Known about the structure:
This protein has 479 residues and is an alpha/beta fold. Helices cover 24% and strands 21% of the residues. The chain contains twelve helices and 18 strands. A hairpin with a 5-residue loop joins strand 14 (341-343) and strand 15 (349-351).
Amino acid sequence: MTTVVVEVDGGLTCNSTLPASRLGRHLFSPLEVAEYGARCLDGSPGGFYYNLCGTGSGQNKLIIWLQGGGYCMANSTKPDIEDCSRRVGTAQGSSNYWGASVSTPSAALWSRTQAGNPDFYNWNVVQILYCSGDLYAGRANTTRGGLYQAGHNILAGMLATLKKDGVLDRMTDIILGGGSAGGFGSHINIDYLRRFVSSSTRVSVVPVSGWFVAIDVYPGSQVTPIAEVGRIMYEASSSYVNQDCVAAIAPLPPYMCLLANTSYPYWGVPSFIAENLYDTNQIFGQDGTPLTPDRKLIPTTCPYIHNFGDIIAQSFTNVANRSGLFVPSCLDHGVDYVNVRIAGPNGNNVNFQQMVGDWYYSRPNAGFPTYRALDPCYYSTSGAVQCNPTCVGGADAAPCNTVTSTTSTTSTSATSAAALTTSGMTSISSATSSSSSLSSLSSSSTGLSPTTTTSMALSLTLGGNVMLVILAIPFLLFI
C-alpha cells in the first residue's frame, strides 16, 4: 500500500503516491507566513510533514513529533552558544533545503511500521522539521541580526492549518512529543495545544531528553548556565512560555518556565517522560564537565557526574504517580525506543516502546504497575553511572561506573534535600544525598491529590550564584 498527504483545493488529504512510511511536505504560503509569522531562521516559509492516512483504531488519532537539534542564538556573543548564522544554508535553518517527503524511522513513537511501533503505527502523523534553533519557543516576527526565531509560530501555524482543514476536529486523541530540542518544544507548547483543541480531545505529551534541570555548572567551567541561556533566549526571541507557570512561580522570572521540571505541574495533560539519568548533553555540553582529548571520562569528574544523577533522580519524585516515566541509568543523550531495557523488581524487563504503550492504554505492567520506571539498578548499585547493561550508543562510563563519594556544589544538606523533595520539590540546584534515602523517596512517592499546595524549591543559577527560593504554590496535577 502506498500513501502520501497531498494538497487538494487548499486542504490536505491522503492519497496513494508515496510509501506509507513517508510523510509529504506542506510549506506555508506567503499569506500564511504573514498571518502566523511562521518563518525559518533565514525567513523562508516554515512548514511541516505529515501523513493523514491513519487506519483502523488510529484513524482519528494523531501524533505530532518535533525534530531535535540543539539551540542557537542570533548574533551570539557567548563562545559556548552556537551562532544561528551557521545554520543558514542547511535544513536546520531554511526550508529551501527540505525535500518533498521524509521517511519515518523503523522504530519510534511516530514510526508507521507495526513491528517497530505496535501501539501507534496506524495513527496519523505530523512532523515538524526544526529550522528555528529556539526550542520551538520563539515568536520573533522581526529579524535579529537578519535572522528569525519563530519556532512557536511554526507550531501554531501547523495547528491552525490542521484546524482550518477540519483535521483537528475529527481527532479523538493527540500526542505531542519530540526529542532533545523537540522534547523541550513539546513540553513548552503542550498547554497551547491543550487550549487550542476541543476539551473533549484526549491530549498527552511525551517529551524525550528534554527534562533539563538548572544546576551549578561544573566548577571552573566557563559555559553559560542553562537558566541564563533561557533568559537570553526568552528576551531575544520573545519565547512562548506557559502562563500558568509564570503566574505561579512569580517573583521568579518567566524564563524559568522553559525548564520542564519547573513547568511540569502546569502542563495540564497526562505525560510520559523519557530521560537518561546521566544525560550527556546536560553533563558535558550544558554543564561544561570536561573530557579527555579522545572524549573519555576524567576520574576527578566522577563526583560531579554522580551528583548530577542524584539530582535528576530527585527531580522525578514530584512527578505525579499516574504520569509515566522511563529513566534508564544510561550515560547518553536520546532514549532508545527498543534496545534499552529496564529490569523490574520481579524480573520483567521493559523498554520504552512497551512502557509508553502500557501507560497510554492503561494496560497492566507487572514490573512497573504505576508506569514509573526509574532504573532500579541506580539504587541497588548506590548510583553507579550507567549500571544498566543494555545501554547502547552512549559514552563509556568508566571510570565512573563504580561508586565514589559525591560532594555538593552548595551547602544544601542531604536531610534538607530530602525534606524539600518529599514536600514537592520541583528543582534543586545541587544536593548530597545517599542512595538509600533516594530509594526511600522514590518508593514512597505516590502522587498528589488533584488540588495540592506544595512547597516548590526553584533554583535559579545565574553567573555561578545560586538563589534557592521556597514558595507555597497551589497547583493542579492531572494524573
